[in-house]
Amino acid sequence: MIWQCNDMCNVANTGTGVLLTLALPAWNTQTRPVLRPSRKYGRSIMSKIVNWSSQKRALHLGMALIWGLFGLTAMAEEAPIRQDAAATHAPSDLSQPQESKVGTDYVIGPGDTIQVFVWRNPELTTTIPVRPDGKISTPLVEDMVAVGKTPSQLARDIEQVLSEYVRSPQVNVIVTQPVSTFSQVRVIGQVGQPQALPYREGMTVLDAILAAGGLGPYAAGNRAKVVRTEGGKQREIKVRVDDLVNKGEMRHNVELQPGDVLVIPQSFF
């Protein structure tokens, strides 16, 4: 509060308080200055205080709004990142088995990628590669031999192990990426480009010959043969490839199987 006195004193406002300076060299109790509140200065100070309080509240409100906007901006920028991360790490749909890339008589080999699908048990369903040692490991099934088995044979073996933990398990084994040598057909001998071809279901001798560049100039096509391994034993299938290619006799167009070797010998003349 600002006080106004007579000629014997001076009043000064320092900003943080009121400084009263006496004009007399010593305080005289007989002639004490008469201090009277000034309405004019009081209203001025109160107005400044109110204005300062209003400015302070406005400043606090502005700071709160700024921090709120910063927080909303950060959340908006972070949300797509979380969504992308969730989409990246979200598990694939395990309610349905994947599509098989091979036939039912396909023989699983090292390097193949297979899906072990357990009906009504998505926690046991998994997609895994066949290890170089020919074995696989899935939930509750460890180190099971997969090489040399068809998908159905491997599924029955897995069911037998799972039956100790799950009531009446139903398992499907699907070959999703056949890459082993068991999934190839090799064409050797007198052809344009001897090579190993990736097997596909329904592949025939004519398909393999055309993919290998056709018969060579010294090929004895009618003495060709398909070497096939069945049950650990090899057997030969005679194929008259020359009549098939040059005469169009389609009865010689033998259907191939994974692992077959088509041999085109050289002519003696």
Written description of the protein model:
A 5-stranded mixed sheet has the order 11-10-14-12-13, covered by helices on one side. Strands 6-5-9 form a 3-stranded antiparallel sheet. The chain has a two-stranded antiparallel sheet with strand order 1-4. The model is unreliable at 1-31 and 81-92 (pLDDT under 50). The chain is built from 4 helices and 14 strands. Among the domains are: 113-179, wza like domain (wza like fold, 2-Layer Sandwich), CATH 3.30.1950.10; 182-264, Outer membrane lipoprotein wza fold like (Roll). The chain is elongated. It has helices at residues 39-89, 151-162, 205-211, 241-246, and strands at residues 3-4, 9-13, 18-22, 36-37, 113-118, 126-129, 135-138, 141-145, 171-177, 184-189, 195-198, 224-230, 233-239, 261-264. The longest helix is centred in the N-terminal third of the chain and has 51 residues, at 39-89. 21% of the residues are buried. The protein is of the alpha+beta class and 269 residues long. A hairpin with a 4-residue loop joins strand 2 (9-13) and strand 3 (18-22).
